[in-house]
Design goal:
The chain has helices spanning about 5-10, 35-45, 55-65, 65-75, 110-125, 135-145, 155-170, 190, 195-210, and strands at about 50, 80-85, 90-95, 105-110, 135, 175, 180-185, 220-230. With about 250 residues, it is an alpha+beta fold. The strands form three sheets. A three-stranded antiparallel beta sheet has the order 1-3-2, with helices on one face. Strand 2 (about 80-85) and strand 3 (about 90-95) form a beta hairpin. The chain is elongated, with a radius of gyration of 22 Å.
């Protein structure tokens, strides 16, 4: 066995011919997957996504063990999404109306949604150019069109800053590269699809034609949109409760 093969074995653990672990990782372990494969699954369900450029070893395990990882995620009502070209992967709810919602959906304000759309357009416009960096001030200038008469400048800037921090700290589609600049994550290509872009753009066009301020009646301007990208939902299962008075 070569040194490279030895290194792989030490990371993944001993396997049998089916690619499963020959023995448990601890006393009483009923699992069958090697240590590194389990860690890759755990990384995916912890969310919000896996980036190959940042976690090369986990990414390699994901690609080599994709079939079994997909199977185990499906057992948890999760669908695995992989973009090999841009080396990003994440889990989303199984595409079935009857399946329970396993992944948390993040509620978006109107400005959150507008910022996501602008960031996605910026990312796609620079496709093939490597890392895409955006400046906070330049991004805010593009969003200034959405400031309505009932919002003074200070309030509007506060809301933009809140959306900027949500992009960085919750959705993690922005990665800081300086005090006021950030790299746009390639995952944004996947979580906002073409249908969503068309729906959002149509709504913005309508607002522009009618001159209607978006959602000014709510303190947080929640626009009713959600993005599914993140860790497992920690709310109680929404399945039917067990009947009381069953057999003892």
């Amino acid at each position: 066995m070569t040194n490279g093969e030895n290194a792989t074995t030490s990371v993944l653990g001993e396997r049998n011919d089916d690619g499963l672990a020959d023995s448990g990782l601890w006393e009483g372990d009923a699992g069958t997957l090697p240590d590194a494969t389990r860690r890759a699954i755990l990384r995916l369900v912890r969310g919000p996504y896996l980036a190959g450029a940042r976690e090369r070893q986990v990414w390699s395990v994901l690609l080599s063990d994709e079939a079994v990882i997909r199977s185990r995620l499906a057992d948890m009502f999760l669908d695995l999404v992989i973009d090999r070209d841009h080396e990003v992967a994440f889990v989303r709810n199984a595409p079935s109306d009857s399946a329970p919602r396993a992944v948390r959906a993040e509620a978006l304000t109107f400005l959150d949604t507008a910022m996501l759309l602008v960031l996605r357009q910026t990312l796609l416009s620079e496709d093939g150019a490597g890392r895409v960096i955006v400046g906070r001030s330049e991004l805010f200038e593009q969003l200034a069109v959405f400031r309505t008469p009932d919002r003074d400048e200070k309030d509007f800037q506060s809301r933009l800053n809140s959306s900027w921090h949500k992009m960085q700290n919750k959705l993690r589609v922005l990665h800081a590269v300086g005090e006021d600049r950030a790299e746009i994550s390639p995952v944004l290509r996947l979580i906002v699809d073409a249908d969503q872009v068309r729906a959002i753009t149509a709504e913005y066009d309508r607002l522009a034609r009618e001159g209607a301020p978006p959602n000014t009646d709510g303190a947080d301007d929640v626009d009713g949109r959600f993005v599914t990208l993140g860790s497992l939902d920690d709310r109680e299962d929404d399945s039917e409760p067990a009947e009381e008075g069953g057999d003892e």
